[in-house]
Structure formats: structure tokens, C-alpha cells
Amino acid sequence: MNVYYPANGVDDITSELLFSTPLFRQSWPNDDELNGSLRELILARERVSTKGDREYSNVGGWHSPIDLHETWDPDLRLVLERGHALAVKATGRLLGTAGKDRHYRFTQSAWANVSRQGDYNVPHVHMATWSAVYYVSVPTDCGMEPQAGGLELLDPRPATTMLDMPGPFFATRHFIKPQAGLMVLFPATLMHFVHPFRGAGERISIACDLTLAPA
Question: Which pTM does this prediction carry?
Fold first, then answer.
């Protein structure tokens, strides 16, 4: 049996995290007035919309045209500005001192989602740098299923599903419970989906893709 004794009693093992996946969250829990206005605005848009031939990741529900980034509505603009600010802070935090003198700017494309009983989104990715989702309205009673209407992020390393290893570094999925006023930001290429919504009312969100513009 070989026994390893580190030199001078100091462990010389080094470690680093590879292929890390960042997730950022920011909440505005006291924005009931803003969210109420956004809810009415989005539902009004849904009532006058026409269904096109384009299919997105949603199964059921309503996916607005991808044009909210062109709006001049001040409430929608505020949410988009918050998303942009979060992407800037997240990018700066990840790069640290390497990017301290750089000014980050992102182009945006945004849309609204309205889900009702049984509506969901299949696994998909977006072609951008970051994806953000802001929850406008989430009913308090979503039925007996704790994951109903929730966002799930999948491990980008598919083979980890074959491992029996405890701990968060080998987790194969991550669940986010939607709450009004919560914004989450994650790499747009990360596979994600939305569980079927349950209960009365609507689950309303604003989604935004942010692509880092050239310096």
C-alpha cells in the first residue's frame, strides 16, 4: 500500500473549476404597481394579437412577437434596462480585473410569455450571450405540483446523468421557482425548459436575449 506524504507537510494538490455555469438573480419584491401595469399591458397585447405560423418553444400559451425591445412604453423599458444592467454587472463580475477598463454594451431582443393551465415550454437554447427572464405575475396557488410553471436549467455536460456523485458540482438540473419581481440571468446557450403551469390565472413573464456587442 502506497502512502502519500506531502512535501514539508503541505498538501500540493491544486484544483480549479472547469466549465462553470453562472446564474444571477435580482429581485424587486415591492414592485406590485409596476407588475400590475405590465400584466394589463401584456394581456391587452395578447387580446389583439394574431397567431402566426412561427413556432417557438412554447406548447400552448401565448408567445408575443419578438419586438418588445422596440417599445417606448416606460414600464417595459424599465424591465429591459434592468436586464441590460444585470448583464453588464454579471459580465464584469465574471471577468474581474481582466475587464475592469472595458465598457460592456448589449443588443437586446425581448418578448412576453403568457401561460395558463397545462401550458409549458420544451427544452431549448437561445443564440445570444445571456438570457434573462423577469416574472411579472405568478398566482399564489399553482396546484399540488411544486414544480408547476417553474424554470429548469439542465447541466451542459450530458454524461453527468450517469454519475452517482453527491454534491452540487455534479447536479444535472437546477430548478427556479418563479416569483413576481424576480429576474434571473444565465448563459443563453444553456438548455432550459418550463414545467407545465397548473392552477387558475396566468403565469406572465418577459424574456430577453442579450448579445455582447463588439467593443
Answer: 0.88
Apex CA 79: angle with CA 36 and CA 177, to 5°?
70
Write the single-letter amino acid at 134. Y
Contacts of 149 by beta carbon, 8 Å cutoff, 6+ apart: 115, 138, 142, 178, 194, 195, 196, 197, 198, 203
The DSSP code for 118 is T
| Residue that the C-alpha cell 502512502 belongs to | 3
Domain count across the chain: 1
Task: Give the whole-angstrom CA distance, residue 187 versus residue 17.
Answer: 17
What pLDDT, in 10s, does the model give residues 58-96?
Answer: 999 999 999 999 999 999 999 999 999 999 999 989 887
Distance (Å, whole) CA 139 – CA 78:
23
Q: Which domain holds residue 116?
A: 23-47+58-96+103-160+168-212
**What is the dihedral angle through the alpha carbons of 74, 80, 83, 89, rounded to the nearest 10 degrees?**
-70
